[in-house]
Automatic annotation (TrEMBL):
<dbReference type="GO" id="GO:0010133">
    <property type="term" value="P:L-proline catabolic process to L-glutamate"/>
</dbReference>
<feature type="domain" description="Proline dehydrogenase">
    <location>
        <begin position="127"/>
        <end position="450"/>
    </location>
</feature>
<comment type="function">
    <text>Converts proline to delta-1-pyrroline-5-carboxylate.</text>
</comment>
<feature type="signal peptide">
    <location>
        <begin position="1"/>
        <end position="23"/>
    </location>
</feature>
<dbReference type="Pfam" id="PF01619">
    <property type="entry name" value="Pro_dh"/>
</dbReference>
<dbReference type="GO" id="GO:0071949">
    <property type="term" value="F:FAD binding"/>
</dbReference>
<keyword id="KW-0642">Proline metabolism</keyword>
<keyword id="KW-0274">FAD</keyword>
<dbReference type="InterPro" id="IPR015659">
    <property type="entry name" value="Proline_oxidase"/>
</dbReference>
<comment type="similarity">
    <text>Belongs to the proline oxidase family.</text>
</comment>
<dbReference type="InterPro" id="IPR002872">
    <property type="entry name" value="Proline_DH_dom"/>
</dbReference>
<keyword id="KW-0560">Oxidoreductase</keyword>
<dbReference type="GO" id="GO:0005739">
    <property type="term" value="C:mitochondrion"/>
</dbReference>
<keyword id="KW-0732">Signal</keyword>
<protein>
    <recommendedName>
        <fullName>Proline dehydrogenase</fullName>
        <ecNumber>1.5.5.2</ecNumber>
    </recommendedName>
</protein>
<dbReference type="InterPro" id="IPR029041">
    <property type="entry name" value="FAD-linked_oxidoreductase-like"/>
</dbReference>
<keyword id="KW-0285">Flavoprotein</keyword>
Amino acid sequence: MSSFLRPPLLHHFFMVRLLGTAASRTLTAERLGTASPGGHDLRDPALAAVLTFEDPQAFKVKSIWELLRALGVFRLCSFPVLVNNCGKLMSFARTVLGKRGFSMVLRPSVYAQFVAGETENEIAESMEKMSSLGLHPMLAVPIEEDLGESTGERRYDDNLATMLECVRMSHSNAWSRDPMMQLKITALVNPDLCVKLTSLLNEEQYDLDVLVRAMNGEHIIFPGLNEKENTHFLCSLHRLNQIGEASVNKVRVLVDAEYTYMNPALSLITMAMMKKFNKDGAWIWNTYQCYLKESRALLLDAIRLSVDHSFCFGVKLVRGAYMDKERKLALQKDKTDPIHQSWEHTNDSYNGCLDIMLNLISQEPARYMIIVATHNEESVRHAVTRMGELGIDKDGGSVCFGQLLGMCDHVSLTLAQQGFSVYKSVPYGSVDDTLPYLVRRAQENRTVLQGIRKERDLLRQELHRRIKERITGAR
Ligand SMILES: Cc1cc2nc3c(=O)[nH]c(=O)nc-3n(C[C@H](O)[C@H](O)[C@H](O)COP(=O)(O)OP(=O)(O)OC[C@H]3O[C@@H](n4cnc5c(N)ncnc54)[C@H](O)[C@@H]3O)c2cc1C
Ligand SMILES: *[C@@H]1O[C@H](CO)[C@@H](O)[C@H](O)[C@H]1NC(C)=O
Ligand SMILES: *[C@@H]1O[C@H](CO)[C@@H](O)[C@H](O)[C@H]1NC(C)=O
C-alpha cells in the first residue's frame, strides 16, 4: 500500500477529538475568512438565488407528458388516504384488473415516474437521458425482505447473480460516468442471522481481520454461531467478496442501512469489506441514519476504525426511512425509542454529521467521501455553503448529492446545472418486483409530501409557461 494513504495518526486523533467539541467551531471559523477557490459560495448572490430552488426552468428538460405525469402522480400522493392505504389499494386493483390490466395502468404512471424500467434497453434509455442532464446513476435492485421470509442458500445465490448483474450494468455502459449502486446486505445474508450477530456483538467484538480472512476463503469458526449459521455466514461473506471483487475500481457500492436490530451486523460486515477493498479509494460505503440518537457516535466510531485500520471511508448520509416501524418496535419491546424525539433533532443531527464529514474531507479529500442523500433543500444549502467555506471543490468527487428518481427533480437538476455532482437512486425491475418498494416509498410520507408541494407548484408554473409559449409561438 502506498504510504500517502497511511494517515498522519496523531493529527487524526486530534481531528476526531476536536470534532466532538465546540473547538471544531473555532477550527472552521478560522477558515471563514479565506476566499473559496471553488467559487461556490452562498455569498455569491447568483448562486444563493439559484439554490432557493424556485426556478421552474429546472424542468425545461422535461416533456409536456412528463410534466403532466409528475403532476398527476404527486396529486395522488397528496391524498393521505390513498398513501396510507396504497398497499391494500394496489393489491385490490391487481385482483380486479388482473396482472396485465394492472401493469397497463401502473406502467405509464406511477411506475414510469419512479422506476427506470425492466429490460436493459429500457434502463439504458432512462440512464442516457439522465446522463444528458448531468445526473449520475445509482442503480438499486429493489429486494424487499425482512425476517422470516428466506429459504435456503439458493435464494441468496440468485440475489447475488442479480447484484453482480447490477454491478456490470452500472459500469459497462456509455451512460455510466463514476457510477454508484446500492447494496442491501440482507439480500445476501439471512436477516435472522444479522439479528443474531447484532445481539452477539453486544457481548464480544469480532475482529475485522478475521472477517477479511473469511472473505478470502479461510474456514473460520465464529464464536456464538451454530454449525449451520457458521456455514451460511461463510457463504454470505464469500458472496459479498464477489461483489467487492467485481466492483472495486469500477463502481462505488453503497451499503444501505436498515433496522437498528440488525444494523450493527450490517456495519461490521461493511467495515470488513472496506478494510479489504478501500485501500486505494472509497469503493465500499456505509450509510448513517441521522434520525438515530446514536448516529453521531456511530459515525465517529467508524471514522476512528477507518483510521486505525487505514482504509478510505465513504458515507451515505440519510435521515432514515424506518421511523414508524422502529418506534412501534421500541414501544412493543418496552425499550427506549432509538429515534430522535422530533424532526428538528433529526435535522440538527443530520447537519452535525454533515459538518464532521466535510471537515475531514477538506483535510483529506482522497480518504473521505460523502453523498448528501437528502431531498431537504436546507441541508443541501448547508452542504453547499460549508463546501464553499472549506474550499472543497464542487466536482472534486469527494462530496456529491443524492436524490431518488422521480423525487425533487428541481433540487437535483439545479445542483447539476451548477456543476455539482448529483446522483439519482434508480430502482429497476418488473412492476411486481418494484411494487413493495414503491409502497414503502409512498409511506415515507410526512415531510416528503411537503417537499413535493413545492415541486408541484414549480411543475405547474413550467407547464403554464410552455402552454403560453405554444400559443404565442403559434401566432
Ligand atoms: C439516495 C438515497 C439513499 C437512501 N438510502 C437509505 C438507506 O440506506 N437507509 C435508510 O434508512 N434510508 C435511506 N434513504 C431514505 C432517507 O433515509 C429518507 O427517508 C428520505 O430521504 C427522506 O428524508 P429527507 O432528508 O430527504 O427529507 P426530510 O423531509 O428533510 O426529512 C424526513 C425525514 O426526517 C425524519 N423525521 C421525520 N419526522 C420525524 C420525527 N417526528 N422525529 C424524528 N425524525 C423525523 C425521518 O427520517 C424522515 O424520513 C435514502 C434516500 C436517498 C435519497
Ligand atoms: C436545521 O439544522 C440546522 C443546523 O443545526 C439549523 O441551522 C437549522 O435552523 C435547522 N432547521 C430547522 C428548520 O430547524
Ligand atoms: C404517514 O403515514 C403514517 C403511517 O405510515 C400515518 O400514521 C401518518 O398519518 C401519515 N402522515 C401523512 C401526513 O399522511
